[in-house]
């Protein structure tokens, strides 16, 4: 076992980790926006829209993420839409994360009793005001644990982007391995890096939760 | 002209006709208490008055205006009609102050600078000025219900509806809520209550409305109704409520 040959690749490893973080955060933010919009659509009255969102969820939750990335990277160019590797992966992972987020946020919204909505309506608030100020904050709190564990799965899943040669951590590891022939050492190192990033995010999420959800839980 | 005019209202849930032609007038400043067994339609009637439920036929007018779920100024209408629920329905994620000021701020009734003073004012009226920075979850049921009343008062309603507001409370907490309601009654607020509190109905209300099987079965001043019920249904209800 010899980790020394990896030392000169430390900058590449750091860059790879940064790309992984970028890919994760961009996909998570876009995916969450899809999640909120999709959940609202699922609860809405427009039947074709509900049907569309439902199909989207089933499609992305029941097919391999790797194939989703491939389709966007390899197949869309034949229809004239050519995206670079990173962007393709970001779009695919956003849609993947979004599909799970819709269901998570919908169940968060469903956890808010109808009586809360009525209380808001009876005070003369509009539908949007009731949603934004009364339903959404507690719904997000209820959905939060599921969203954060899905986020960690997304972080680990970004390694799939290596297959279209996006310069994220796993791809960098493959490159270093091909140069040094130190497979175990390289993958041990990035394993530790993934683990450290996941744990760091968990700590960050706990801090965010403590700041954002300050009201006491129902007894 | 009566403040609230209810004319031959019918309402069906699925196959069950809950309201079978209810008519009722409530004048300004009047305290009307609706009593009756569960399932007699009293809560449904109350919820129809601010369009939480739609009526199948008949008509409800408040301040002369036809009330229904699609009225163009439903939001403005609801700002003038306060409703307090059995389960308080405070917003758990907002402190007491914000529970009270959310709607006045969002509807433009007050500006940011006046919010704290408004909350202090209405909390003083329900005797909870010291709880302005508490979370709802930190309050007893009676205190939560008084905050819910204060939240309505902050909208300066013309009419208050109370839907079994003491039914979920421990017996020793009922009194503090009734006291607040009694004070509101003395100040001339028009109030319609659905309640099982016969003492309150007897002592504070101007009129008792007894509902039975989806109809107004009997109504009149409390003294007369409790002493000399005309129908056997009311007589048996009073006997069982004692």
UniProtKB/TrEMBL annotation, chain A:
Topology of this chain in the membrane: Multi-pass membrane protein
UniProt xrefs under PROSITE patterns: ABC_TM1
TM helices/strands, residue ranges: 20-42, 63-80, 186-213
Domain ABC transmembrane type-1: from-to ranges: 17-205
Pfam families: BPD_transp_1 (PF00528)
Compartments, as annotated in UniProt: Cell inner membrane; Cell membrane
Keyword annotations: Cell membrane, Membrane, Transmembrane, Transmembrane helix, Transport
InterPro entries: AA_ABC_transptr_permease_3TM, ArtM/GltK/GlnP/TcyL/YhdX-like, MetI-like, MetI-like_sf
NCBIfam families: HEQRo_perm_3TM
Record-stated family: Belongs to the binding-protein-dependent transport system permease family. HisMQ subfamily.
Protein name: Amino acid ABC transporter permease
Organism field: Bradyrhizobium campsiandrae
UniProtKB/TrEMBL annotation, chain B:
GO molecular function, one term: ATP binding
InterPro entries tied to this protein: AAA+_ATPase, ABC_ATPase_HisP-typ, ABC_transporter-like_ATP-bd, ABC_transporter-like_CS, MetN_ABC_transporter-like, P-loop_NTPase
A Pfam family per the record: ABC_tran
Protein name stated in the entry: Amino acid ABC transporter ATP-binding protein
Keyword Ubl conjugation set for record: no
Known function: Involved in beta-(1-->2)glucan export. Transmembrane domains (TMD) form a pore in the inner membrane and the ATP-binding domain (NBD) is responsible for energy generation.
Transmembrane segments: none
Domain ABC transporter, chain residue ranges per copy: 4-238
Claim: Cell membrane is one of the keywords in the record: yes
UniProt subcellular location: Cell membrane
Primary location: membrane
Keyword list, A-Z: Amino-acid transport, ATP-binding, Cell membrane, Membrane, Nucleotide-binding, Transport
Topology of the protein relative to the lipid bilayer: Peripheral membrane protein
Family from the record: Belongs to the ABC transporter superfamily.
